[in-house]
């Protein structure tokens, strides 16, 4: 119960500098949307492991399945061998998630993290089409390894690679110029113009809501136009649902509302149910082209992930979960709109949708100040956006309504404190 000689919180003396989070606490225990530090101080978690904890910390039903599995000597690591846990997950995911939505995908385990899923998606798209370029968007975030970083629209992060990263072309995301500029029409025109420098791409990769990029929400209309452009030109559509999937925007897949049928879908973060590292890449069956051994990896068989992931699907089988999410989303929306409207002098705007909403400030430093003020009052929240101008609320989807309201009340007090 002692922080010892920890001088920099969240950065143990021996840890590298590249991590960016430094909340002044050493965390110890957690349950659903609450987390406690070693001093016993309680925080409401509006961060949820950057979206890896949609079902909360230590979800009791998932934990009990995991504990049983361990006590029954269930296989934990198995590479890509067949296991009962894997088979159970595959069957349940297909029956509960894919089939009811009329989706037909083969399921790949590309490695433990989101970036592994994105890498595999980019590789498949290139292999299928024989083309090199991936079109991606301003302020996109797809990961930190070389391929996914090449698709990430953030110059600071790309500089981490030391050299220019090849084979991606950036387009403005929906709404980038404000209203009235259709960036799909723009891309369409570029693709027809040999002078534009745009090759016919292998794929377009997008997030339906840019999580790290500032909670920018693409319109349904824009998403539909992208899908149509992809179909018309034989370009693969990759939806990166690593952060927005598993219910974050209110439906299991974030593209359901727009009725998209992507060629490839990337999932990670909350798919592992319990914060366990796990990723999926969903591919249209006809793209199952890799020969055995052409794309493999040691940690593609995390059976604890399969067990937790299968149990988490119970939420989607319940038939009531989406309604609960809509109710919570509305509470967040009303709270944020109320605050913003009551304080026009703060020059703040609501961003995001579902259970990933936030407040964007014309004066970017206010977002960091809000996060710091909220932390002092016991709420953990992050910032996002190119200037860190958005204070981002991302609670577990399973947060109790009373805890959500408590957190929103703390947010209100913190907001009023910083705009004084
Ligand atoms: N894609 C998106 C949309 C993400 O938000 C993230 C992580 N923030 C990633 C990919 C990369 O996932 P990971 O950090 O697990 O590699």
From TrEMBL:
<dbReference type="InterPro" id="IPR005814">
    <property type="entry name" value="Aminotrans_3"/>
</dbReference>
<dbReference type="InterPro" id="IPR004637">
    <property type="entry name" value="Dat"/>
</dbReference>
<dbReference type="InterPro" id="IPR015422">
    <property type="entry name" value="PyrdxlP-dep_Trfase_small"/>
</dbReference>
<dbReference type="InterPro" id="IPR049704">
    <property type="entry name" value="Aminotrans_3_PPA_site"/>
</dbReference>
<protein>
    <recommendedName>
        <fullName>Diaminobutyrate--2-oxoglutarate transaminase</fullName>
        <ecNumber>2.6.1.76</ecNumber>
    </recommendedName>
</protein>
<keyword id="KW-0663">Pyridoxal phosphate</keyword>
<dbReference type="GO" id="GO:0030170">
    <property type="term" value="F:pyridoxal phosphate binding"/>
</dbReference>
<dbReference type="InterPro" id="IPR015421">
    <property type="entry name" value="PyrdxlP-dep_Trfase_major"/>
</dbReference>
<keyword id="KW-0808">Transferase</keyword>
<dbReference type="GO" id="GO:0047307">
    <property type="term" value="F:diaminobutyrate-pyruvate transaminase activity"/>
</dbReference>
<comment type="pathway">
    <text>Amine and polyamine biosynthesis; ectoine biosynthesis; L-ectoine from L-aspartate 4-semialdehyde: step 1/3.</text>
</comment>
<comment type="similarity">
    <text>Belongs to the class-III pyridoxal-phosphate-dependent aminotransferase family.</text>
</comment>
<dbReference type="GO" id="GO:0019491">
    <property type="term" value="P:ectoine biosynthetic process"/>
</dbReference>
<dbReference type="InterPro" id="IPR015424">
    <property type="entry name" value="PyrdxlP-dep_Trfase"/>
</dbReference>
<dbReference type="GO" id="GO:0045303">
    <property type="term" value="F:diaminobutyrate-2-oxoglutarate transaminase activity"/>
</dbReference>
<dbReference type="Pfam" id="PF00202">
    <property type="entry name" value="Aminotran_3"/>
</dbReference>
<keyword id="KW-0032">Aminotransferase</keyword>
<dbReference type="InterPro" id="IPR012773">
    <property type="entry name" value="Ectoine_EctB"/>
</dbReference>
């Amino acid at each position: 119960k002692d922080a010892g000689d920890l001088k920099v919180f969240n950065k143990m003396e021996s840890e590298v500098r590249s991590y960016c989070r430094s909340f002044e606490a050493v965390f110890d225990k957690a349950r659903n949307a609450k987390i406690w530090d070693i001093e016993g101080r309680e925080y409401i978690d509006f961060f949820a492991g950057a979206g890896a904890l949609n079902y909360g910390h230590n979800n009791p039903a998932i934990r009990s399945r995991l504990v049983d599995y361990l006590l029954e000597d269930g296989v934990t690591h198995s590479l890509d061998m067949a296991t009962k846990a894997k088979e159970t997950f595959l069957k349940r995911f297909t029956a509960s998630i894919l089939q009811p939505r009329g989706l037909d995908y083969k399921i790949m385990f590309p490695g433990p993290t989101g970036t592994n899923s994105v890498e595999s998606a980019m590789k498949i798209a290139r292999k299928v089409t024989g083309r090199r370029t991936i079109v991606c968007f301003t302020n996109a975030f797809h990961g930190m390894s070389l391929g996914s970083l090449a698709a990430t629209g953030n110059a600071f992060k790309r500089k981490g690679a030391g050299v220019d990263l090849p084979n991606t072309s950036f387009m403005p995301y929906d709404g980038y110029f404000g209203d009235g500029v259709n960036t799909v029409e723009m891309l369409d025109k570029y693709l027809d113009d040999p002078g534009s420098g745009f090759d016919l791409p292998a794929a377009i990769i997008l997030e339906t809501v840019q999580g790290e990029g500032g909670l920018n929400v693409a319109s349904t209309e824009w998403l539909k136009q992208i899908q149509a452009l992809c179909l018309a030109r034989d370009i693969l559509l990759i939806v990166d649902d690593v952060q927005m999937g598993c219910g974050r925007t209110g439906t299991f897949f974030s593209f359901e509302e727009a009725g998209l049928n992507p060629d490839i879908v990337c999932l990670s973060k909350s798919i592992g149910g319990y914060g366990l590292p796990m990723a999926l890449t969903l591919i249209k069956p006809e793209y199952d082209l890799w020969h055995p051994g052409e794309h493999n990896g040691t940690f593609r068989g995390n059976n604890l992930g399969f067990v937790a992931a299968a149990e988490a699907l119970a939420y989607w089988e319940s038939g009531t979960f989406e309604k609960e999410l809509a109710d919570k989303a509305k509470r967040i929306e009303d709270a944020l709109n109320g605050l913003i409207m009551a304080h026009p002098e703060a020059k703040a705007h609501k961003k995001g949708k579902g259970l990933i909403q936030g407040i964007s400030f014309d004066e970017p430093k206010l977002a960091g100040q809000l996060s710091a003020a909220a932390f002092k009052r016991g709420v953990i929240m992050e910032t996002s956006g190119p200037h860190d101008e958005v204070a981002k609320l991302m609670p577990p989807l399973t947060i109790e309504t009373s805890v959500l309201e408590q957190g929103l009340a703390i947010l209100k007090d913190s907001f009023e404190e910083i705009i004084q």
